[in-house]
Amino acid sequence: MTQFLAKAQGMPKHIESALIKTTRNFIWNNTRSPPINLEQLYQPKETGGINLLDIKSRNEAIEITWVKSYLNISPTRPTWAYVIDLLISNVKTKDINGKRINNTFLQNWDPPTRGPNSRSLPNEAIKIIKTAKKHNIAFAPIKMSKNIKKQLPAWDNIGAPQRTYHKTKKQMPTRDT
Questions:
Q1: Most buried of the four, 36, 86, 97, 112, by CB within 10 Å?
Q2: 103-123 pLDDT per residue, tens
Q3: Contact, 77 vs 155, CB < 8 A?
Protein backbone atom coordinates (compact mmCIF):
# COMPACT_ATOMS: atom_id res chain seq x y z
CA MET A 1 0.00 0.00 0.00
CA THR A 2 2.81 2.44 0.89
CA GLN A 3 4.56 1.85 -2.43
CA PHE A 4 1.35 2.47 -4.40
CA LEU A 5 0.67 5.72 -2.55
CA ALA A 6 4.28 6.83 -3.01
CA LYS A 7 4.00 6.20 -6.76
CA ALA A 8 0.62 7.92 -7.06
CA GLN A 9 1.16 10.85 -4.68
CA GLY A 10 4.79 10.97 -3.71
CA MET A 11 6.01 10.55 -0.16
CA PRO A 12 6.78 13.66 1.87
CA LYS A 13 10.28 13.72 3.36
CA HIS A 14 8.95 13.84 6.93
CA ILE A 15 6.96 10.62 6.33
CA GLU A 16 9.99 8.96 4.76
CA SER A 17 12.10 9.94 7.80
CA ALA A 18 9.42 8.74 10.23
CA LEU A 19 9.21 5.34 8.47
CA ILE A 20 12.98 4.94 8.50
CA LYS A 21 13.11 5.89 12.18
CA THR A 22 10.27 3.48 13.06
CA THR A 23 12.00 0.67 11.14
CA ARG A 24 15.32 1.41 12.84
CA ASN A 25 13.72 1.49 16.29
CA PHE A 26 11.89 -1.77 15.62
CA ILE A 27 15.00 -3.57 14.33
CA TRP A 28 17.24 -2.35 17.15
CA ASN A 29 14.61 -2.27 19.93
CA ASN A 30 15.06 1.52 20.48
CA THR A 31 18.83 1.17 21.01
CA ARG A 32 20.58 4.52 20.69
CA SER A 33 23.69 3.16 18.98
CA PRO A 34 22.89 0.15 16.78
CA PRO A 35 25.59 -2.51 16.41
CA ILE A 36 25.23 -2.61 12.59
CA ASN A 37 24.72 0.26 10.19
CA LEU A 38 21.24 0.43 8.62
CA GLU A 39 22.89 0.58 5.18
CA GLN A 40 24.33 -2.89 5.83
CA LEU A 41 20.87 -4.26 6.69
CA TYR A 42 19.59 -3.17 3.26
CA GLN A 43 22.04 -5.59 1.65
CA PRO A 44 21.01 -9.13 0.56
CA LYS A 45 21.56 -11.98 3.03
CA GLU A 46 24.47 -13.29 0.95
CA THR A 47 26.42 -10.09 1.67
CA GLY A 48 25.59 -9.88 5.38
CA GLY A 49 22.32 -7.93 5.30
CA ILE A 50 18.73 -8.90 5.98
CA ASN A 51 17.33 -7.55 2.69
CA LEU A 52 15.52 -4.74 4.53
CA LEU A 53 13.49 -2.39 2.34
CA ASP A 54 15.45 0.80 1.65
CA ILE A 55 12.58 3.30 1.66
CA LYS A 56 14.73 6.24 0.61
CA SER A 57 16.12 4.40 -2.45
CA ARG A 58 12.66 3.07 -3.33
CA ASN A 59 11.21 6.59 -3.25
CA GLU A 60 14.07 7.87 -5.37
CA ALA A 61 13.41 5.11 -7.92
CA ILE A 62 9.73 6.11 -7.97
CA GLU A 63 10.73 9.74 -8.59
CA ILE A 64 12.87 8.59 -11.54
CA THR A 65 9.81 6.82 -13.01
CA TRP A 66 7.97 10.16 -12.79
CA VAL A 67 10.78 11.77 -14.77
CA LYS A 68 10.58 8.94 -17.31
CA SER A 69 6.84 9.50 -17.75
CA TYR A 70 7.35 13.26 -18.02
CA LEU A 71 10.02 12.85 -20.70
CA ASN A 72 7.80 10.58 -22.80
CA ILE A 73 7.13 12.63 -25.96
CA SER A 74 5.16 9.91 -27.73
CA PRO A 75 1.37 10.00 -28.22
CA THR A 76 1.03 8.04 -24.96
CA ARG A 77 2.47 10.93 -22.93
CA PRO A 78 0.36 11.44 -19.78
CA THR A 79 -1.88 14.50 -19.60
CA TRP A 80 -0.29 15.67 -16.35
CA ALA A 81 3.05 16.06 -18.21
CA TYR A 82 1.49 18.68 -20.52
CA VAL A 83 0.11 20.48 -17.48
CA ILE A 84 3.59 20.50 -15.91
CA ASP A 85 4.97 21.96 -19.18
CA LEU A 86 2.42 24.79 -19.00
CA LEU A 87 3.16 25.50 -15.35
CA ILE A 88 6.91 25.53 -15.96
CA SER A 89 6.51 27.84 -18.96
CA ASN A 90 4.73 30.34 -16.69
CA VAL A 91 7.84 30.70 -14.50
CA LYS A 92 10.25 31.36 -17.34
CA THR A 93 13.15 33.59 -16.51
CA LYS A 94 13.88 37.03 -17.96
CA ASP A 95 16.40 35.79 -20.52
CA ILE A 96 13.83 33.63 -22.30
CA ASN A 97 10.86 36.00 -22.29
CA GLY A 98 9.09 36.18 -25.61
CA LYS A 99 10.19 32.74 -26.73
CA ARG A 100 7.95 29.71 -26.99
CA ILE A 101 8.56 27.24 -24.20
CA ASN A 102 7.72 23.59 -24.77
CA ASN A 103 9.69 21.32 -22.50
CA THR A 104 12.71 22.31 -20.45
CA PHE A 105 14.48 19.07 -21.35
CA LEU A 106 14.14 19.78 -25.06
CA GLN A 107 15.41 23.34 -24.84
CA ASN A 108 18.45 25.16 -23.49
CA TRP A 109 17.09 26.67 -20.29
CA ASP A 110 16.62 25.62 -16.68
CA PRO A 111 13.46 26.45 -14.79
CA PRO A 112 13.94 27.79 -11.26
CA THR A 113 13.55 25.30 -8.42
CA ARG A 114 14.12 27.81 -5.60
CA GLY A 115 13.22 31.38 -4.91
CA PRO A 116 10.23 33.55 -5.80
CA ASN A 117 9.93 32.35 -9.42
CA SER A 118 9.49 28.73 -8.34
CA ARG A 119 6.72 29.34 -5.81
CA SER A 120 3.98 28.94 -8.41
CA LEU A 121 5.21 25.45 -9.31
CA PRO A 122 3.70 22.45 -7.54
CA ASN A 123 6.07 20.38 -5.41
CA GLU A 124 5.78 17.49 -7.87
CA ALA A 125 7.12 19.62 -10.74
CA ILE A 126 10.05 20.82 -8.65
CA LYS A 127 10.73 17.25 -7.54
CA ILE A 128 10.80 16.06 -11.17
CA ILE A 129 13.23 18.82 -12.17
CA LYS A 130 15.51 18.25 -9.16
CA THR A 131 15.51 14.46 -9.63
CA ALA A 132 16.44 14.84 -13.29
CA LYS A 133 19.25 17.27 -12.43
CA LYS A 134 20.53 15.06 -9.61
CA HIS A 135 20.82 12.05 -11.92
CA ASN A 136 21.96 14.05 -14.99
CA ILE A 137 18.90 12.94 -16.91
CA ALA A 138 18.72 14.59 -20.31
CA PHE A 139 17.18 14.08 -23.71
CA ALA A 140 20.18 12.74 -25.62
CA PRO A 141 19.17 10.33 -28.39
CA ILE A 142 21.89 8.61 -30.37
CA LYS A 143 20.01 9.08 -33.63
CA MET A 144 16.67 10.81 -34.18
CA SER A 145 14.15 10.04 -36.87
CA LYS A 146 12.88 12.88 -39.06
CA ASN A 147 9.52 12.62 -37.30
CA ILE A 148 11.12 13.22 -33.87
CA LYS A 149 13.21 16.10 -35.25
CA LYS A 150 10.04 17.77 -36.54
CA GLN A 151 8.49 17.56 -33.06
CA LEU A 152 11.39 19.38 -31.38
CA PRO A 153 11.04 23.11 -30.71
CA ALA A 154 12.71 25.37 -33.24
CA TRP A 155 13.95 27.97 -30.74
CA ASP A 156 16.68 27.21 -28.23
CA ASN A 157 16.68 23.61 -29.41
CA ILE A 158 18.98 21.30 -27.48
CA GLY A 159 20.79 20.45 -30.71
CA ALA A 160 21.44 24.07 -31.70
CA PRO A 161 24.70 25.75 -30.77
CA GLN A 162 24.38 28.36 -28.05
CA ARG A 163 23.30 31.84 -29.21
CA THR A 164 22.29 30.59 -32.68
CA TYR A 165 18.99 32.44 -32.77
CA HIS A 166 20.06 35.64 -31.03
CA LYS A 167 20.62 38.87 -32.89
CA THR A 168 24.21 39.97 -32.98
CA LYS A 169 25.64 43.29 -33.97
CA LYS A 170 27.51 43.09 -37.21
CA GLN A 171 30.24 45.53 -37.97
CA MET A 172 30.01 47.31 -41.26
CA PRO A 173 33.00 46.74 -43.46
CA THR A 174 35.27 49.75 -43.73
CA ARG A 175 36.47 51.14 -47.01
CA ASP A 176 40.15 51.41 -47.47
CA THR A 177 40.89 54.48 -49.57
A1: 112
A2: 777 766 677 788 877 788 888
A3: no
